[in-house]
Hints:
Largest sheet: 8 strands, parallel
Radius of gyration: 17 Å
Structural class: alpha/beta
Number of helices: 8
Number of strands: 10
Shape: globular
CATH architecture: 3-Layer(aba) Sandwich
Strand order of the largest sheet: 4-1-5-10-9-6-7-8
CATH superfamily: Ureohydrolase domain
CATH topology: Arginase, Chain A
Number of domains: 1
Distance between the termini: 32 Å
Amino acid sequence: MLGPNVETFLACDAPYEEARIVLYGAPFDSTTSFRPGARFGPAAIRHESFGLETYSPYQDKDLEDCRIFDSGDMELCFGSSEMALSDIEKRASVIIGDGKLPFLLGGEHLVTLGAVRAAVKKWPDLHIIHFDAHADLRDDYLGATLSHACVLRRCHDLLGDGRIHQFCIRSGERSEFRFAREHTDMHPFGFEGLDAVVNELCEQNLPVYVTIDLDCLDPAAFPGTGTPEAGGVWFPALLRAMQLVSRTHVIGADVTELAPMLDASGASTALACKVVRELLLALYQA
């Protein structure tokens, strides 16, 4: 008998009831400040994932051994950031309420705020580990307080000082870097200091949300993003960082800012797929 044609991320087709991790896509890019297209990222990641093997030789793990459910892309209102964030928060709350780890595929980076809103309601002592080229700490961008340029500032509104740990940052207004010196734990340009942060979070068993803006990668390796910024990290360094972060009590994660049509070669999408595969395997607890 023929079954439905449902495209999921590679091997992430376990029944929802049995799943430990639940993927959900947020195809939203309405506040993108430079080159749009991230709304097509989640679908591209799913489609192109079949160019990968399920097995990771880096971790000696296989997605076929993991119970992961892909719930597909949400239908979001492109005309209202707040409505889109509310829908993302509701989806994340359902996944969290069912005792599963929500794994968000963006979309622009603003979508992270909806997931963090849901997470902080269950874990008020939440910390965020943030990989990005940009500080995302503006109070507003052209008058809009809900923008991908402001997403970590809005997260700070929820969490407060010292609970956002930022790495790879190499771009932002001077005021953002001044704000970071007083209010966040910023480690510019790379992953120096990540080991110490992870050790501290592990010692205190604090809940952690991991957010990866793919433009933390150097645009020579990952040009398919809306705001590429020279001087980024390379995949081996990001892989080690993801494995390191997985030692903490991760309660949610996301990968954002792939704009697939901005790299006609397909290399950026292929790299995004590999990042998702490796992060899923690093976070999966049998």
